[in-house]
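Re: that backbone. Tokens:
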């Protein structure tokens, strides 16, 4: 490929946050910044390995950017980094991970590592961790009753259980892979967002 480091695009209308993320990651990644959704679509191309994407932006929402990227066939990892509280609608979204702001440098690095430096059978592993991320964020934000009323949540949970069993049989170090995933702190800070 000729590139020595993976390329990460940070998309956030809050310039200070986008610039801080870019500065924190520039030691390990080639970084680009877009301060809005429309600008992101101009910057993101086939050479991008991952996108850190805010959901709430004035010109074009992160949800719209994500949908457009997937419609264009972009298969880069998309990690939602946002203060927007998740709802059951995230089950239909094509992102790879969901982090609630504020996000520290270590969490960004470890999340990117997992998605940009893939292991064997990466597509299925990415799908698995994407499912886990969606389930975990919904379990943290919604009541058990709300989750039990959602057929889609139950279907997604069932799919995650099936994949757990399949991947456990296929990947030698599967348990340590899951342990690494679970050690990534996705919880929001104590800023009372």
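Recovered sequence:
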């Amino acid at each position: 490929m000729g590139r020595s480091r993976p390329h990460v695009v940070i998309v956030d209308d809050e310039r200070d946050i986008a610039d801080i993320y870019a500065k924190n990651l520039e030691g390990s990644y080639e970084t680009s910044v877009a301060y809005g959704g429309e600008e992101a679509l101009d910057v993101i191309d086939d050479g991008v390995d991952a996108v850190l994407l805010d959901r709430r932006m004035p010109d074009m929402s992160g949800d719209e950017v994500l949908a457009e990227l997937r419609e264009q066939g972009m298969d880069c990892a998309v990690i939602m980094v946002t203060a927007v509280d998740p709802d059951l609608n995230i089950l239909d979204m094509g992102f790879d991970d969901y982090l609630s702001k504020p996000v520290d440098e270590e969490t960004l690095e470890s999340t990117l590592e997992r998605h940009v430096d893939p292991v064997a059978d990466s597509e299925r592993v990415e799908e698995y961790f994407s499912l886990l991320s969606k389930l975990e964020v919904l379990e943290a934000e919604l009541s058990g009753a709300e989750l039990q009323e959602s057929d889609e949540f139950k279907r997604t949970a069932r799919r995650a259980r099936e994949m757990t069993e399949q991947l456990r049989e296929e990947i030698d170090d599967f348990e340590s892979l899951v342990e690494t995933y679970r050690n990534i702190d996705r919880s929001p800070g104590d800023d009372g967002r």
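The two ends are 41 Å apart (CA to CA). The mean pLDDT is 86.
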